[in-house]
Structure formats: structure tokens, C-alpha cells
């Protein structure tokens, strides 16, 4: 039968180009092309084959922001919505949550579109977008990428960037400076000697680990007060998961890059919790987070914490292995790859009452031997 796609452009010149570029996909896709919102609505009113994917050029004129895409989602029974953006700005990505599943760079690349559709088909965040939208519509605040993090990303997108530039950005934020130095001097990193320079810390930790510190510190300290869990507890728990995940990756023979990505993913794996509203009794603490990792009490929400986190990370355009690792936490059987396995193991270890995080990270032989035994038992149970 093929996949039903609806392409919506600003003018027929754009649509003609879309048709030309996608001509070779006619055997795989049932494609309809609409010029503007009125034409698209007219098509939906008469078709008996609702689009499963809608590709829209930027934000169409004569519409109120993403109202058009919202109406498309309602009328077409929650299709995958992709925006073909001339510039995928932070503002565009933030405004598109939760109506758009991904932003693609113009001009349209059929291969990239096909890859994106395949990826979204197995993305828990995409599959649960209706439930996520139900949740996000009930709150006024949607977490956005912090300014400091955006600046770090802008710098690293240049070929000629230096770590000194990143350290200078961090030093503009007194709280972030203190947190970076506190973390680099903690037992979690096992570095010898006191580190008192942000530039030295950035050089020792590496780019991906610094990204995790910058983003998590900003998100967990600047989020709205209505979050379900105490943010300091969330920050501490995420740091523990991140640190354990990094060491697990190291023990498993992962390179420095995968170790750092495991750390970053651990810092962000519960970012979806930021959208869960606090109960009238007030914010919840560490016991809730342990339950949250297990799914206890959290499923009363229409969308779970990992699906929401997956959705946010994808819309923030994080690396696919990070997005997939967070998604896999809800379905451990799909946790493939070093990053996903490292974070999943860290989450499982932190569920053990009184697990000695510091000793494990510092390299205590007895603790690591017990962890090796536990992992062997988990693998045996999973194989059974």
C-alpha cells in the first residue's frame, strides 16, 4: 500500500521542487501536495486515506504559529509532523513542541526524510506524542535549552573553536562555575590534585562531559517551581546515574567518547520529570525518583517520564544514541549499544538500597566485584 505523505508548501514552485526531489519514492510513498493551509484542509476533508506523515515548509503564512499543524494533528489522527526549515533555530524547535516530531533542514533530502521516518517509527516519544501533547497543554512552562548551553553549542559548531572559549562562557555564570569545580574535584572523577581553574577542568573533563554539567545544572536549577520532584534531589540523582554510567562504560572497554556520552545521557535521562506537575502535597523526594525509575506511581500520567524525555531530547536535536538510550530505559530489551547499556546498568544499580556510588566510582575492588556478579545474574535472567 505504501506510506501516506502530505507535503504542504508556501507556493507551487516549492511544491514542484518537492515533487521533483521525491519522484523516485513513488513506489514507496503515496504523496499528496498541498499549497498552503486551505488547500491542505481541503484535501483532508475529502480523502479516505489520512496522511501518516505531514511535511510542512517552515511555518505557513496566514496561520497563527503552529495552529495549522495542531489542526493537522487533530484531523489526521496524530500523524508524524516534520517541518522543513530553512533555519532550525532554537526558537523554532521550542515553539514546535509538541506539534512537530522533527525539524529537517531545507532543501528537502528524500534520503534524510526516509531515515527520519524510519527513526520516528520506533521512537517512543513520537509514538506517544498525543499523550505528551495532552500533558504539555495542561502546563504553561516547557523547558527550553538554557542560554549558556546554547552558547556552548554555538561555539562547538565552529571548526576553529577552543576549550578556552567554552571555559570563558562557563565563568560568566558564578553558580555554574562553582558546580563545575565541585564536580571535577569530587570522587566521581578520580582526578589527582585540586583543580581550581575552569579552563583546566574543561580540558580534563572533555567537551561531552562539560555539556552534561552545563545543561543539567541549568535545567535543574532554573526549572519552574511546579515540578513534581525536588530539583536538588533530581540533580543529585542524575549526577549519580551519570557518574556510575561513565564508570560502567569504562569497565566495559568503551572509549573516552562513549564514556563521556554515557555521562551526558545519565545527566539527562530523567529530563522528562521536569514536565510532571507537583501534587498538592508538595514536591516529592528521593524515594519517588527510585520509584520513578521502576515506573511505580508514575504511570498515572498519560505519558511516562522516559517518553517525555525522549521527545524533548529529540526536539532539542541531541545525538540519536542519547535519544535512543533514554527511550530504551522504558523498554530495556531494546537497550543496545554501549551508551544505552551503560545508563541502564547505572539506573539498575542505583535502585539497590544503599548502593555505594562513591566507592564504585573510586574503584573499590569489593564493590566492583559485587557489581560484576550482579550484572552476570541480570544477563542470565534476561537470557532465560
Walk me through this protein's architecture.
By secondary structure, this protein is α/β, with parallel strands linked by helices. The chain folds into two domains: 3-121, Rossmann fold, CATH 3.40.50; 159-383, Hypothetical protein af1432. It has 20 helices and five strands. A five-stranded parallel beta sheet has the order 2-1-3-4-5, with helices on both faces. Helix 10 (174-184) crosses helix 11 (198-205). The protein is elongated and about 65 Å long. The relative contact order is 0.09. The model is unreliable at 61-65 and 294-303 (pLDDT under 50).
Write the layout of secondary structure elements.
Blueprint: E1 3-9, H1 12-21, E2 29-35, H2 36-46, E3 53-57, H3 67-75, E4 80-85, H4 90-96, E5 102-105, H5 110-121, H6 124-127, H7 129-136, H8 147-156, H9 163-171, H10 174-184, H11 198-205, H12 207-222, H13 231-251, H14 256-268, H15 286-294, H16 305-315, H17 320-328, H18 338-350, H19 357-362, H20 365-383
Parallel strand pairs: 1-2, 1-3, 3-4, 4-5
